[in-house]
Amino acid sequence: xxxxxxxxxxxxxxxxxxxxxxxxxxxxxxxxxxxxxxxxxxxxxxxxxxxxxxxxxxxxxxxxxxxxxxxxxxxxxxxxxxxxxxxxxxxxxxxxxxxxxxxxxxxxxxxxxxxxxxxxxxxxxxxxxxxxxxxxxxxxxxxxxxxxxxxxxxxxxxxxxxxxxxxxxxx
Amino acid sequence: xxxxxxxxxxxxxxxxxxxxxxxxxxxxxxxxxxxxxxxxxxxxxxxxxxxxxxxxxxxxxxxxxxxxxxxxxxxxxxxxxxxxxxxxxxxxxxxxxxxxxxxxxxxxxxxxxxxxxxxxxxxxxxxxxxxxxxxxxxxxxxxxxxxxxxxxxxxxxxxxxxxxxxxxxxxxxxxxxxxxxxxxxxxxxxxxxxxxxxxxxxxxxxxxxxxxxxxxxxxxxxxxxxxxxxxxxxxxxxxxxxxxxxxxxxxxxxxxxxxxxxxxxxxxxxxxxxxxxxxxxxxxxxxxxxxxxxxxxxxxxxxxxxxxxxxxxxxxxxxxxxxxxxxxxxxxxxxxxxxxxxxxxxxxxxxxxxxxxxxxxxxxxxxxxxxxxxxxxxxx
Lengths: 171, 380
Prior knowledge:
The complex is a heterodimer.
Chain A: E1 3-4, H1 7-17, E2 22-25, E3 30-32, H2 37-46, E4 54-62, E5 67-75, E6 80-88, E7 95-97, H3 106-117, E8 120-122
Parallel strand pairs in A: 1-6, 3-6, 7-8
Antiparallel strand pairs in A: 2-3, 4-5, 5-6
Chain B: E1 8-12, E2 24-30, E3 33-40, H1 48-52, H2 61-65, H3 72-87, H4 93-122, H5 127-147, E4 156-157, E5 160-161, H6 169-191, H7 195-201, H8 209-214, H9 220-224, H10 231-234, H11 255-279, E6 294-295, E7 305-306, E8 311-319, E9 322-330, E10 338-342, H12 344-348, H13 352-356, H14 361-371, H15 375-379
Antiparallel strand pairs in B: 1-2, 2-3, 4-5, 6-7, 8-9, 9-10
Helix pairs in contact in B: 3-4, 4-5, 4-11, 4-14, 5-6, 6-11, 11-14
């Protein structure tokens, strides 16, 4: 069975190496400060007891007051898993350092988080839209995007940014 | 005399038979040599993650059929495992074995398609894929028997499976498991030493184990690079801890090894199926859901809805394409607060540029074929 290192344990390990780098720790994940993120990730990847050389999943969550980027890490050699998070407080301009120098596998996953949640990964080699087209207005996975009465998705009448003129019978 | 050639751009796709769906590769070429490869995705983007945040946990199961539509069973299973982690539900023994049987049948069906279409990409035009489609149809017949559908199966449920299999299922499955090894011998005779495949694929698109791990590559692609990592072994779910099988591993990490690993995995799936058909116990196929998580909701969406406690879960399984994970965040409401799919097809494309640059256009086609993408899962 894969050993799960809880957020509390991993926070303890990180604190020993980088005092003050951990913001918050819950059993699910440890929240790391953005400024130390790349150093912490390099440590998690290289430490002989941790060896998290495989970035399983990277995604972003809109927590209404702030954004959160979640990293699920796997160590293939030691068969263990953990999760860390980083917060992007500024809703207008959420910025998080990119972890592509540590794990190149973050490349497409960070592009996806940028495309759908609008989080800017500083230092990413090629941060562009991936599923939506350039010039698409808005970040669809944010909670304030297209919320209708009752908090439910009203359905698109037409593509966002498309002209409001009637379609002229072509359907 | 030197000839000055300007680099030029070739669009491979989105409507090209070797891109396996609406996927576009923009290749910058110098003569026939690739100097840059850029992926253009999103033609099949349906924003499933946003849609799922508006629906109840049970209503979301059909979405997971439609991401990886060639492996709907594994898509279903990864999602329900994540929800079960969130709620703390343990499915009954028979359901666990049924899940194992269905996932291995699905792996055979999916690899039949992957290997057959790969042979197509190499230039072994249509004959191998027709043989494999014939066997895949037999697996789909079994699925039809179990749940009435052939492609979008919607068979797994939170806490078990939707229904028990009919009495004729087990004999039919056993018959298939007995006849498939002969078919696999046939494929190996036909393809393994086939000049068309060997010449096109050996030594092409090489990933070292370190590169593969660093680029988050998973599944047969990772194993072809020599990393014996299989979530069925490393972190067993369903009934995989009770069956005996080997992990198929490649040596060179090239396109040919990926193809060989997939063929070898089909044999291992048959080994698992033989044991599972012997060991499967009688009993219920659905767990009683804890009453605290099932309660009437105020909106007229469903009479009963599962409300997992506040928290988050990351459930992952070994799908035919690699590590398929679902990251769910619950705020205690009947719909997930965040629903993220870690899709192996998408993430396995990360090193595509690394593998293709320096090769020729013909190489790019077999490299893309060896990644075995499903565009429904890439774009979601």
